[in-house]
Design brief:
Layout (H helix, E strand, L loop, with lengths): L40 H18 L8 H4 L6 E7 L5 E8 L9 E10 L2 E12 L3 H16 L7 H18 L1 H4 L3 E2 L1 E7 L3 E7 L3 E6 L2 E4 L10 H6 L4 E2 L7 E2 L9 E2 L12 E6 L4 E7 L1 H4 L4 H9 L4 H14 L6 E8 L2
Length: 339
């Protein structure tokens, strides 16, 4: 289905209302499986902020209240949730800092916006390495660059591909400010609740559950699977005992934004897939490899299904990854369709 032009869009689109909240972890231990009926202090705070956001929106002071505006990958732990105006599609997110001795490098986006009479759900995970500058830049600019492309409204695939390329070029041109690091990316754009476009570079992944079947919507870009491309570009893939394959002995993904010193051997063009969203569509999970290293696609969906509240589902996924001794930063967004 990749590369097909977007056809008919539903012309009915309601005014957007979306809210999220980012809160620091209290550090207290809790039961692994939380019940849906529990309303903790964090959720009460979410409710208060939501009410304030709705007031601002009603006064015309706020066009959207999004997780990306409230914060990115700065806190050691954060979570939040929101929904579209109709309340039929809800999302939650959770980020937990890994065990490495460096600041959080995972960033996310989760929000609904109104553009040209259409409702767009924008969801993303950006997993940085060698610093947080590049994922922070992606959080601020990648979706904006996609939606700036005039072709987006007639050919979303081409628009997404061009925006990924232009964004990577911009990151490389700002190397003195953004540093030598890089980032993976997985982005999902939900158009009017009926069409889903997913793109990725690197090993951040999106998984969709529909009609009881689990489908991976992304491609893991790993050095071993793209060895030919790397070698054709003058690079090599190392396979040291006890370590994962790496590009030139350094990077564990074969496609990424940034990474100026390795860029001649890397690609930043995304794999892009799209699908219809209908009454059989259940759950979409986007996550960094901190989750996927310790959990299968099926396991992630099975855990998410246990919770009607997608924020609790996202928090449970990150908690389970920690329990399974994931050492990397862990971030995920869970989108629940139609209840």
């Amino acid at each position: 289905m990749r590369g097909k032009n977007f056809q008919a869009w539903d012309k009915e689109s309601a005014e957007q209302g979306k809210q999220t909240e980012t809160a620091k972890s209290t550090g207290k231990k809790s039961a692994l499986w939380k019940g849906d009926q529990e309303l903790d202090a964090e959720e009460k705070l979410v409710s208060q902020i939501r009410g304030f956001a709705e007031f601002l929106f009603s006064m015309g002071w706020l066009c959207c209240f999004s997780s990306s505006q409230l914060g990115g990958g700065h806190s050691s732990s954060s979570s939040g949730k929101g929904k579209n105006l109709q309340g039929m599609i809800r999302f939650g997110f959770s980020l937990v800092k890994g065990k490495a001795n460096h600041p959080m490098e995972d960033y996310h986006v989760a929000k609904f916006v109104q553009i040209q009479g259409h409702e767009l759900g924008l969801f993303a995970i950006y997993d940085g390495h060698l610093g947080s500058s590049v994922p922070a830049y992606l959080q601020k600019h990648l979706f904006a660059n996609i939606l700036k492309e005039e072709e987006f409204w007639v050919d979303p695939c081409r628009a997404i591909s061009k925006a990924y390329e232009k964004t990577d070029q911009a990151i490389l041109s700002h190397g003195s400010d953004l540093g030598r690091g890089g980032s993976t990316a997985v982005t999902a754009i939900l158009i009017n609740g009926i069409r889903l476009w997913v793109a990725n570079v690197g090993d951040s992944r999106a998984v969709l559950s529909s009609g009881g079947q689990v489908r991976q919507m992304t491609t893991d870009h790993e050095p071993n699977t793209e060895r030919g491309s790397i070698e054709n570009r003058g690079g090599f893939v190392s396979n040291m005992p006890g370590d994962v394959p790496r590009v030139n002995g350094q990077l564990a993904v074969s496609r990424a934004f940034g990474d100026k010193s390795l860029k001649s051997h890397l690609r930043s063009d995304p794999d892009i897939h799209n699908t219809n969203v209908d009454n059989s569509t259940e759950i979409l999970v986007l996550a960094s490899d901190g989750l996927w290293k310790v959990m299968t696609n099926q396991e992630a969906v099975d855990i998410a299904r246990r919770f009607k509240d997608p924020q609790k589902a996202a928090k449970q996924l990150t908690a389970e990854a920690v329990k399974r001794d994931s050492k990397d930063d862990i971030s995920c967004v869970v989108v629940r369709f139609r209840g």
